[in-house]
Description:
The complex is a heterodimer. Chain A is of the alpha/beta class. Helix content of chain A is 36%, strand content 16%. Chain A has a domain at 35-61. Chain A is built from two helices and three strands. Chain A starts with a strand and ends in a 5-residue tail after the last strand. In chain B, α1 packs across α6.
Amino acid sequence: MGIPVVQITPIPNIALMLGVNRIVQGRAVPNPVGDPSLTPEKEKELRRKYILRALELLQTDVEGPTVVTLEKD
Amino acid sequence: MAEKLRIVHYLNQFFGQVGGEEKASTGFLVKEGPVGPGLALQKELGDRGQVVATVICGDDTFALSPAKNAEEGLKLVASHRPDLFFAGPAFAAGRYSIACGAMCKAVGAELGIPVVSGMFEEVPGMELYRKYAFICKTGNTARSMPAVIRDMVRLAMRLVSGEKEMRLLTRENLPRPDEYNYFSRNLLRNEYCEKTIAERTVEKLLAKLRGEPFESEVVPPRFEKVPPPPAVRDLEGAEIALISDGGLVPKGNPDRLARRSNLRWGAYDIEALRREYEVTHAGYFNDYVLERPDRLVPFDVMCELAEEGKIGKLHPTFFSTSGCTTVSKRCGEMGDEIGAEIKKRETIRAAILTST
């Protein structure tokens, strides 16, 4: 069995179509894990949230392609 | 048809009447004439062809090294100078489906003759080899053998009846998968139509809007299902790698990744990369990443999390490619190549891939 990969992408539909198993919806196409409109401190906090969400998904067993967003369900 | 077609048939140890699972490690052997399902095949062919030889190999033996075994099997098949090659049908048998597919691929590529098999849609051999062989659709048990043999022969006869040169060049004679009950090989076929593409498009669109049935002339590619690897259990001890398709490369782009339709990837020391870098990707506005590459490749946060002990370690190499109008086939290959490199490094337990 391979190792898990989590993809952070602003367009989860494409990843889903391709069969990616662990997907986090990213911020935007030119800045998937950042936001130039924020102060550097706030932006890093935001990035940390995306990464923590991605790490959470890496620690979760999934049945098939699964998309999560920053806001928890 | 003046002469009978010469046919070679491939079977596993079970259908080849060597034995059951206890004989699955049998090596290659050849029996003259038809064996087991080959008898039904011969009956269905009648005067049109003669099963001259049956090549048999144990499922365990074959599955250990499909490509190498297919080469060996090919030599046995070629020595009988066939005009047509059949394998199986394998139905829902996993190892057997791979053996049938690999044999078909090798024989088809080397001898240039039609290769026909039969499989249930969920076996691995179908997805792995459907592009290289005509694989008839079957049920999941051997109960439907007579019907499957009929399908395989019908398809094979259709394949040998075409004018060869025309078939090779533009595939006018390629049978339609739905008409001949086989898995699509993702081949496009030239066809003469009375109506222009504009007329056909509008007709199909109107049919769709009315909720009427219509048939698409170009079917989008089907993507392989990848079984999800298990979750990481001890993140605090795990080494994580970063990958991105956003085109972040060292200044000067040493591996010459293309901005568009790129076919390459690179492995770069992440700390050195952060000192001098550029972006090679024509598919998005690069300025935000150029201003702060963490917006694409989250180096800062990953270092922080490693220091805090939330993850074991950040792998020092970053795997980079540029995904902009790259064909999906090459994307898949690059994924396999990067995956193999990650596996080779042994210590990496998971990866984060960021995409633009």
